[in-house]
Design goal:
It comes from Senna tora. Belongs to the PsbQ family. This protein is about 75% helix and about 0% strand. It is built from 6 helices and no strands.
């Protein structure tokens, strides 16, 4: 029995040794992972610093790419007689909008679509929502105004005058509608809007016809 008792410490030594080896191996793995993590973080920090440094030393790249404006967007210009003869502009025009060049056919399509959007505004015309009516009208009518100018410029000589008359008739009514909504006169706003819907239908029909033949 004494001999067997003496053997117990001998048989336990390999287990203890394996535990120490496992702990040592785990410690080495953790140290390796920490080193890789620190290296990756250092690489990311260095790359971010280089990008920031390049951006700081080359600010002209943003200014020269054609998409950077330090001031408000310049308003587009019109080449046809569709502005108010007394003011030289239109009261409903909204500033700061980017007018993408989508081509003449694209302008026809957008006029038709935005005219439809204004027709769908009927449920919005109420005594307590005139402020929203005015904002929505200004947004849509601004695009219609500049798109109409492009369509007139590209039209044939026989179509230029009828299109100009149609545009001025519509824009005169837009100004009345915008003014009534601004003054929060509900009865006048409703009356002007009803007149506008008739013109919007005419515009939609004309743009749809021109779109098919262009």
């Amino acid at each position: 029995m004494a001999a067997l008792a003496n053997l117990h410490p001998i048989t336990r030594l390999p287990n203890a040794q394996r535990k120490r080896n496992n702990k040592t191996h785990q410690t080495q793995i953790l140290a390796s992972l920490q080193t890789k993590t620190l290296t990756r973080r250092a690489a990311i920090s260095l790359a971010s610093f280089i990008l920031t440094l390049n951006h700081t030393h080359k600010p002209s790249l943003a200014l020269d790419n054609g998409f950077w404006y330090e001031e408000p967007l310049p308003p587009p210009s019109v080449s046809n007689q569709i502005a108010n003869e007394q003011t030289g502009t239109r009261s409903f025009l909204k500033k700061g909008l980017y007018m993408a060049n989508i081509g003449v056919k694209g302008s026809m399509y957008r006029i038709k679509k935005y005219a439809f959007d204004l027709l769908a505004m009927a449920d919005l015309v109420a005594e307590d929502t005139l402020n929203y009516v005015r904002k929505y009208l200004r947004l849509k009518s601004t695009f219609i105004y500049y798109d109409f100018d492009k369509v007139i410029s590209a039209a044939s000589e026989n179509d230029k005058q009828p299109l100009t008359v149609m545009a001025n008739k519509l824009f005169d009514n837009f100004e009345k509608l915008e003014d009534a909504a601004r003054r929060k006169n509900f009865s006048e706003t409703k009356s002007c809007y009803q007149e506008t819907t008739v013109m919007l239908h005419e515009v939609m029909d004309r743009m749809a016809s021109m779109y098919k033949t262009t």
